[in-house]
Specification:
Blueprint: E1 2-7, E2 12-14, E3 20-22, E4 26-27, E5 32-37, E6 46-52, E7 56-64, H1 68-82, E8 88-95, E9 112-114, E10 118-124, E11 131-133, E12 136-145, E13 151-153, H2 157-163, E14 188-189, E15 193-198, E16 211-218, E17 223-226, E18 231-234, E19 241-246, E20 249-252, E21 255-256, E22 271-277, E23 282-287, E24 290-291
Antiparallel strand pairs: 1-2, 1-8, 3-7, 4-7, 5-6, 7-12, 8-9, 8-10, 10-12, 10-13, 11-12, 13-24, 14-23, 15-22, 16-19, 16-23, 17-18, 17-22, 19-20, 20-21
């Protein structure tokens, strides 16, 4: 097994490159935080819904040092790699098949491979120590998600339109909700009605997740409706050109334009989302998939 770490700066490495080897990659289920209230004279509780909290990931590890001094040097190096005030992304690698003669770093079918194209944004959750046995060191790395508790796809729908979903680039794979339907791989449309496929099992909300909708040639009165969710966005300004909904920001030709809209936004449910637009403009969706 192995763990790939990618810093926000873009620097990326695997623990095995530093002679540290993961023994497991344990992902906890997401914490659910319920909200209850009580009413005088009424039995039980009032369910006010629930929100998701955090998620923990633990990585038991081992390393073999070259000599007794190297045990301490590897310990310090591992601390430098994983202890950071800034969050970073982690990805899981596992062997496709088991073989007793497996060597870490082996590129054959018995070597470690990325598990699909999911990643987690995390930070070290606690301190770790190393238990030494001769030249071996054993310990546990603990991480926790820093913002959303969901796994997210490394690639976006723009990557799908440009390159497809081949796993050669290491950003797509099994278990990501992708389907063998050509229409599900299309995220740019010019028709009055069309469908957008969200391969994740979590809704994509513009206030929390990465999603950008771009409409070329939009004019006053342009209206976009997600028939699946019932949400409608309308542009009521007088300018025309490139309209962009980038998360919670709305621009027309690069100029802030939220005041020229009905102040409603578009989200995507898991699976198919049926859309209509009242002007047959070129519209494109660029977003990531999210997973519980």
């Amino acid at each position: 097994m192995d763990v790939e770490i990618t810093k926000l700066s873009g620097e990326s490495f695997r623990l095995s490159e530093y002679d540290v080897y993961a023994r497991d990659f344990i992902v906890e289920s997401i914490e659910v935080i319920p909200n209850y209230s009580a009413v005088d004279g009424r039995n039980g509780r009032v369910d006010n819904g629930a929100t998701y909290g955090g998620r923990g990931i633990s990585v038991p590890f081992l390393y073999k040092a070259a000599d007794m001094h190297d045990v301490a040097l590897l310990r310090d190096e591992l601390s430098g790699l994983t202890v950071d005030r800034e969050p970073f992304y982690v990805r899981e690698l596992r062997r496709l098949k088991y073989h007793p003669g497996h060597v870490y770093g082996d590129e054959s079918e018995y070597g470690d491979r990325l598990i699909g194209g999911k990643r987690y944004l995390v930070r070290a959750a606690s301190t770790f120590d190393v238990e030494q046995t001769a030249l071996y060191g054993f310990g546990d790395l603990s991480f926790e998600t820093t913002e959303l508790p969901f796994a997210e796809s490394v690639g976006t729908t723009a990557d799908i339109e440009q390159y497809g979903i081949s796993d050669e680039r290491g950003i797509w794979g099994f278990g990501m909700g992708l389907i063998s339907d050509d229409e599900s791989l299309k995220y740019t449309h010019t028709a009055y009605s069309f469908r957008i496929y969200n391969a994740g099992n979590v809704s994509v909300c513009p206030f929390e997740r990465d999603i950008k909708i771009t409409v070329k040639g939009a004019a006053s009165g342009y209206k976009l409706t997600n028939m699946t969710t019932g949400e409608s966005f309308e542009y009521i300004g007088w300018e025309s050109g490139e309209l962009a909904l980038d998360g919670a920001y709305v621009t027309m030709n690069g100029i802030q334009a939220l005041r020229d809209t009905n102040r409603h936004f578009i989200s995507l449910t898991p699976g198919w989302n049926e859309f209509t637009q009242n002007q047959a403009k070129e519209i494109s969706f660029d977003f990531r998939f999210y997973y519980k």
